Amino acid sequence: MYDWNALWHEREAYRTGYDIHHDDVNELAGALQARLIHPAAAGQVAVYEDENRYILAGHDGGLQLLEVIKHGLFDITLRFVSEDEGQGVALPYVEIHVDNLATEEQAVWRAETRVDDEGRIWVGKRTLDENVLPAMPFDELSFTDNAEFREELARVWHEDLPQLRPLIEAWFHHGGEIGAVNEPAHYGDAERVQQMCDRYAEIVRREQAQLSRMFSDDELRLIAGVIAGIHFDSAASCRGVWLAVEARIIEDELDQQHQIDADALLSKMKGLSYAQEVALIEALSPLN
What we know:
There is one protein chain. This protein is about 40% helix and about 20% strand. It is an alpha+beta fold and about 290 residues long. The strands form 2 sheets. Strands 1-5-4-3-2 form a 5-stranded antiparallel beta sheet. Helix 6 crosses helix 11. The protein starts with a helix and ends with a helix.
C-alpha cells in the first residue's frame, strides 16, 4: 500500500526507542497488540497494524518504533478541470480530491470557476484575491475535523490554488482552449513562460512525493517497464495509464514476475488524478 521505508525515513523525528528483551522486529505482534502485515527483510522495517494506526519497527542505533495514525495518511489533489468529465458541474471548475488508502475513504469537492468583469477569478463563492477558505465540510470523511487535515486543506487553497491562475486565465482569455497556454506569443514574454514551467515542475514534484508513498518499488518497476514502450505524444495520451498496465499484466503476467498484487496495483492506478498520472510518467519515463 505504501512505501514503508520512505515513511520510516520521512518521519524519522517521530520515532521512539523501544526496550524489549529481544530485538527481532518481526516478533513484536504480542507486545504491540497489533498484527504483522509487512515482515521486515534485510535493511527494511516491519509494519504492524491495529484499528487506528500502523506501527513501523526498525533498527537505527537500537530498536525504534514509528507510530503512524491512519487518519493522517490522506492525500489532497487539486485539479483545474477544463473538459467535460460528466460530473454535472459547469466548465471550467476546480476539483479538490481527498483520498486515504489506509482508511479506504475518498471524497471530492468541486466549484465552478469564472472571471468577472473586473478580471477577478472566482472559485465558487470566493475570489482568489480574498484568500479566504470556503466551506468544504467533507462530512463523509471520518477525519474531516482532524486539525492536520484542515491545515493541509487550507494550505492547498492558499498556496497551491493561486498557482493555477495562469491556466484559469488562459481558459477564459482564449475561448476555453487551454492549449493556448503553450503559445508564448499570445501569453507573455519568456519570463512569464519560465514562471509557468517552474509551477508545472513544482506540481509534478509534489505529486511525485505522494506517489512514492502509494506505490512500492516493485510496483514502480513494473509500471516503468510498461510505459517504457509508450510514446506520450500529447497531453491527453497521459490519461488512463492503468489500461496499458492491465493489458501487459494479462498478456505477460507481469504481476507474477514482479511478485505483486495486480488487483491492488490497478485499483490504486485507477484512482490517480490526471496530475498524478503525469507525475508518474515524468518520474518513470526513460530520458531520450
